[in-house]
Amino acid sequence: MQGPIQRPTLRLPEVEAAYQAQRRRRARQGDTSCPLCRAPSLEEFRFWRLIPNEYPYGKIAKTHHMLVPKRCVTEHDLSPEEREELLVLKRSLAVRYHYYLEATPQRQSVPGHYHLHCLDLQGPCAHPNHSPSQNSFSE
């Protein structure tokens, strides 16, 4: 008998195991509350909050925060004001992070609450002269 199919993950193995255990525990308890709504804020804006990721993508990131609207809504349901502030925040937060990452619909773990992953990379890819095609530093 085979175990569950392992999906690719950006989390370190121990963090992925804790994440999956938490998902199973919430499912057993019938907990349908939004984990992003419960997360503490690192910083608050008019329509958005910056929150820590409890289960960060440690394989690639030394810092992993998430930008979430204060309302629990999908991307489609963002108001014009929320969209406008998102564009402003993406520009202003760009000095703190290397990348913004957004999951495709089939990979979203919290599909009911739009969120943008804000990542500060670690390792060779964090170096400004890194050349991914050469998998080394360019001179």
Classify the beta-strand content into a percent band. 15-25%
Briefly note the CATH topology name. Answer: HIT family, subunit A
H/E element string? HHEEEHEEEE
| Arrangement of strands in the largest sheet | 1-2-3-5-4
Q: Please give the count of helices.
A: 3
Sketch the major β-sheet: 5 strands, antiparallel
Helical percent range? 10-25%
Shape annotation = globular
The CATH homologous superfamily is named HIT-like
Number of strands: 7
CATH class: Alpha Beta
CATH architectural grouping: 2-Layer Sandwich
Rounded to an integer in angstroms, the radius of gyration calculated over CA atoms is: 17 Å
- Average pLDDT, all residues: 88
Domain module tally:
1
Question: Overview of this structure, please?
Answer:
- With 139 residues, this protein is an alpha+beta fold.
- It has a single domain, classed as HIT family, subunit A.
- Helix content is 24%, strand content 21%.
- It contains three helices and seven strands, in the order ααβββαββββ.
- The chain has helices at 13-28, 35-38, 80-93, and strands spanning 43-44, 48-52, 61-69, 99-101, 116-121, 130-131, 136-137.
- The strands form two sheets. The chain has a five-stranded antiparallel β-sheet with strand order 1-2-3-5-4. It has a two-stranded antiparallel ribbon with strand order 6-7.
- The protein is globular.
- The termini are far apart.
- The relative contact order is 0.16.
- Mean pLDDT is 88; it is low at 131-139.
